[in-house]
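Form 7-S
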Amino acid sequence: MPNLLVEIGNTALKAAWSQGITLGKTFRYQGEKYMDFILSLTVKEKAEVLLVSSVFTLAPEERERLEAECSHLVVLDSSNKETLLSYGLPSYISFDRAAAIVAARYLFKGTGCTIVDFGTTLTVDFTDSRGIYRGGNISLGCRTRFKALNRYSRSLPLVDTPSDCSAIGLSEKESIECGVVNGIVYEIEGYMALYPENVAVFTGGDAFYFAKRMKNSIFAVCNLVLMGLALIADEYVKSIE
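Output:
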């Protein structure tokens, strides 16, 4: 039986079926009825392991509904921090960051990684060549920065991520676009300079957008978090066999 991986993030849900560590079809959902969406994925086929990573703690009744859809339910939320410790990671990091680190360790074994996730938040995590976690930072994501400028200023308009931008804006709109986009580029270049020996791994919705704006070579892996969840689910299956 395949496993079903679900990542419930700040703004969207991502899911994928997996066989071992190989990902199958992926899904994305944005809305409030996330539980109904998860259950819709198991109508035709039950999962061996249903692994749910969530930014918030699932309610007991939600767990009960999910347990009926699989042979084994694994929930990674604030109530299951021991899993982080078992992977040599601190208990304060979120499980999406943890999964990205697990996947990067697997993909780039023996090499230090600078892992950047471009989502609602911008997270940057570092590992050394032995896979040991060095730490990481959190700041606002690209679209969150645009929204913050509009919300917390009296006159700046809300703009969206531009298809392209120059070094310096020549209008108010361009100034916002170039300020946010170039600010993130300079920020990431600074982080990459901390550990120049590391491989840079980008993931998240804006990964390719920013990868093409970097001077150095970048590995952009869109489903890095789901890959990490697949590895965690596969290790769980092996532990119960």
